[in-house]
Specification:
The chain is an alpha+beta fold. It has eight helices and 27 strands. Keywords: Membrane, Transmembrane, Transmembrane helix.
Length: 531
């Protein structure tokens, strides 16, 4: 048996209450099929207002004590902000184009900077696709020389957390905290009935017969029922808790939740990409009902994902290291209730975009991709971190840098990438006659001689490619290597700066850009860009 599965691309829902007969779970499922993106995060609580603000030690109490917030401010419009410009999400969200919203502000993504992550060697050998439904990319600053997410978070009084990726898959029944950024639930609830007398597997009809609030909790044995919420409320951040479901239990209910041969992992095919995943079930409730189901009291913090939550973070507490760790990002929902048209649906308005007790949420087994993610986030060979990655603000952006796996499953460098994308437009190009935004030679010339205490994204955009804080000859040599690798052309620093080669400590025999003369006048002044 399997349930309808669909991609998430919107948010969470925290329902005030959501109940489905436990005996009905086995008959409400249908063949697994990908459907349109889902819409919200549902929190099981009569009053979900505490879950629309960052968790505190009062609202999220546990062994973590005062460290109750795993990464509220790190949640972006499509994923999780990892730091130093990097964002992680599900690939099917489209991350890598347009802009990404972080703490209410839109950051343009750096062109050609996104990377689709690869499945580990053992998974590919077991028949999985080479690429997973996972993507990392980088965001630019708000303006050319100001506004990293870290700077703006400090300005806004937000608290960006250092993000640590878990070393191993989450154990069964491990408590998790999910933070999503999408639609929220509408008020009201719906008790839905479907006749199962002629079949053990039932699709909910369209329109769905619905109680008016006066039907009893007990229904005839010839029917099944479900309770759920529309998740079409306004978009906002929300958080909630759940526990990791046994993968064997999930596999018994979902046909396409499959064990990966030779490993301890399970996979699902999401948007035509196999991805190593785990899951949690919307299955715990503590509510009191009156005879007409018209009122409920109580409720916990358990959540169910819905459309729009794809890419949102799943966190678990590491007691040994005393820290929160990113265990996965959400990918897809397996619906308990499906409508005759094949979509998830339990809303009072009978429209797609609702959540019911009994839904599953699949999230990445992110530990399997940890080494690959950290390889991309690390500096190039020879430029090791001077401190922890979170403390070292140096910024390297090599076009086309690529990692993969060897036969033994170790992460290896496949392509060193190109130096020289000074202006971060995603290309290594220019001849010194274009605008700063499209011409890396112009950008380098304008930054020549720039000095600051340490390298960062701003010094990079001044030509400080080796990130020592100074734009000088050593940076020019890296720039030149990028142009030579791109089109075989060489650069002359003397020609670029419009001065005699006797004043430049470089070989005077270097060929000019593109084998010709770079038309730069000696009188051209080096402009400082102020943005």
């Amino acid at each position: 048996m399997s349930q309808l599965v669909y991609d998430l691309q919107a948010a969470f829902i925290l329902p005030s209450w959501a109940v489905v007969s436990r005996w009905a779970l086995g008959v409400a499922i249908v063949a697994a099929v990908l459907a349109p993106p889902a819409d919200a995060l549902v929190v099981m609580n009569v009053d979900p207002s505490n879950y629309y603000v960052a968790p505190t030690s009062q609202t999220n109490s546990g062994v973590w004590g005062s460290n109750a917030d795993p990464g509220w401010a790190n949640s972006t419009s499509r994923g999780v902000y990892l730091g130093n410009g990097w964002v992680l999400s599900a690939r099917h969200t489209g991350l890598g184009t347009g802009s990404e919203t972080i703490n209410g502000e839109d950051y343009n993504v750096i062109a050609n900077a996104f990377v689709d992550l690869k499945n580990p060697t053992a998974a590919v050998n077991a028949g999985l696709s080479s690429l997973a439904d996972l993507r990392i990319t980088r965001v630019n600053t708000l303006v050319d020389f100001y506004g990293t997410p870290e700077q703006r978070a400090a300005d806004l009084g937000a608290s960006l957390q250092p993000i640590y990726i878990a070393d191993s898959r989450a154990s069964t029944n491990k408590q998790l905290v999910a933070i999503g950024n999408g639609n929220t639930r509408l008020d009201g609830d719906s008790l839905l009935h479907a006749d199962k007398s002629s079949s053990s597997s039932v699709n909910w009809p369209d329109p769905v017969p619905e109680c008016d609030g006066n039907c009893l909790h007990t229904v005839p044995s010839s029917q099944i029922h479900a309770l759920g919420y529309s998740n079409q409320g306004p978009r906002r951040l929300a958080w909630g808790t759940n526990r990791v479901e046994s993968s064997t239990t999930v596999a018994n209910r979902l046909q396409d939740f499959d064990p990966v041969s030779g490993t301890n992992s399970y996979s699902m095919n999401i948007s035509d990409r196999d991805t190593l995943v785990q899951a949690f079930d919307f299955d715990t409730y503590t509510f009191n009902y009156n005879s007409s189901l018209g009122e409920v009291v109580g409720g916990g913090s358990e959540i169910q994902a819905a459309a729009g939550d794809s890419g949102s973070g799943i966190y678990t507490w590491n007691s040994t290291a005393s820290r929160w760790e990113l265990t996965g990002v959400m990918h897809t929902i397996a619906c308990y209730v499906t409508r005759a048209n094949g979509s998830c649906g339990t809303a009072a308005a009978l429209r797609q975009g609702s959540s019911a007790f009994g839904d599953f949420t699949a999230f990445t087994e992110l530990s399997a991709y940890k080494d690959q993610i950290e390889a991309y986030m690390a500096p190039p060979e020879g430029f090791e971190w001077t401190g922890t990655p979170g403390e070292d603000a140096r910024f390297f952006s090599l076009v086309g840098r690529e990692f993969g796996y060897d036969a033994a499953g170790e992460v290896v460098l496949l392509n060193e990438g190109l130096w020289g994308d000074v202006n971060l437009d995603g290309f290594v190009r220019g001849d010194g006659t274009g605008d700063w935004a499209t011409d890396d030679v112009t950008a380098f010339i304008e930054g020549w001689g720039h000095e600051q205490a340490a390298g960062d994204i701003f010094s990079w955009k001044q030509g400080d490619l080796n990130q020592d804080g100074i734009t000088d000859l050593s940076d020019f040599l890296l720039l030149r290597s990028g142009f030579q690798a791109t089109n075989g052309a060489s650069l002359s620093l003397a020609a670029m700066l419009g001065t005699s080669s006797n004043n430049i400590p470089e070989p005077s025999t270097m060929v000019l850009l593109a084998g010709g003369t770079l038309a730069l006048l000696a009188s051209r002044h080096l402009r400082r860009r102020r943005r």
